[in-house]
Amino acid sequence: MKKLAAMLAGVALAMPIAAAAQDAAGTTKKDSYRFLIVPKVVHPWFDKVNDGAQMAAAALKAQTGAEIEIVYSAPQTADVVQQVQIVESAISTRPDGIAIDLLDPSGNRGSLEAAQSQDIPLVIFDSVPPEGMQIPYIGSDFCEQAKIAARRLVEVLGGEGEVAIMMGVPTAPNHSIRAECHREVFAEHPGIKVVAEGIDNDSIETAQQQAAAIMQANPGLKGWVASDAAGPIGIGQAIVEAGKQGQVTLVGLDNLPEMLDMIRSGVADSSSASQPELQGYWSVMLLWAQATGAPVPGYLDTGNAFLTKDNLGN
């Protein structure tokens, strides 16, 4: 009897442990998941984000057997109203998570709060959360990325010359942070003068038009930096069209194929690049982790790379 009593006591002690194991973080399981990826705008950089998201979906299916659907939905223009409409429409379909690159934190806040009120997991990529909102976010150090580019331009110009900044979408947190950090670097060098700032709204065509107009109005311009991935491509096109290769130095941003081609051909000196594929991959991984009840980090840094003709290869 004593042995039986001891065994029963052992079972009784084990039962709460077993129950706790069943409720352990990250153990909620489904046969299928549907995640929404919402970029700022239709853009090649975000195509790379989507590539990364699809890689994560394939990895999760291979490892867990679950069906993972990635719904990629981009606004046609960098319009926060369109972006909010996409998110609000998605909320009604109860996705298992939404990853979004914010166009305007104040404009996006309401739709993010609506998703949170329905316990829909959120991740912000290539941006930062609206003030006071606890949402996991993924990206690189936007300020450091900009400073790498601005310092390089100062170095190439020998600390002297007129420069211009392409700002991207001024309300977008990552773009505004980069623009401000470009200014901070240039302000440290008395010989550098910022003579113009363009706004391209993440459009290559608009960046080309803005750059062409700025160079025409400032014939002594010696260098360019940008705050978005579209900006340097449009700037490079304007430099070529104006016949100013070798006269105007471009230090670009990110790693789109056009940007890499301009470095190889000498239109651009270099680029300070984030890694969009990693941002897409880890956005899905963090959404999936939240959907399973697992804890996730508040911030995941995917890092920056400095690209030159020497380290790109052919």
TrEMBL record:
What are the GO cellular component annotations? outer membrane-bounded periplasmic space
Which is one GO molecular function term here?
carbohydrate binding
What residue stretches are annotated with the Periplasmic binding protein domain?
Answer: 36-294
Kindly give the Gene3D superfamilies that the UniProt entry links to this protein.
3.40.50.2300
* UniProt record similarity statement: Belongs to the bacterial solute-binding protein 2 family.
Signal peptide span = 1-20
Q: Which InterPro entries match?
A: Bact_Solute-Bind_Prot2, Peripla_BP_I, SBP_2_dom
Q: Which residues form a coiled coil?
A: none
Q: Which domain of life is it from?
A: Bacteria
Q: Which Pfam families match?
A: Peripla_BP_4
Instruction: Indicate what this protein is called per its UniProt record.
Output: Sugar ABC transporter substrate-binding protein
Provide the protein's localization: Periplasm
Organism encoding this protein = Gemmobacter lutimaris
Please provide the record's keywords in A-Z order: Signal
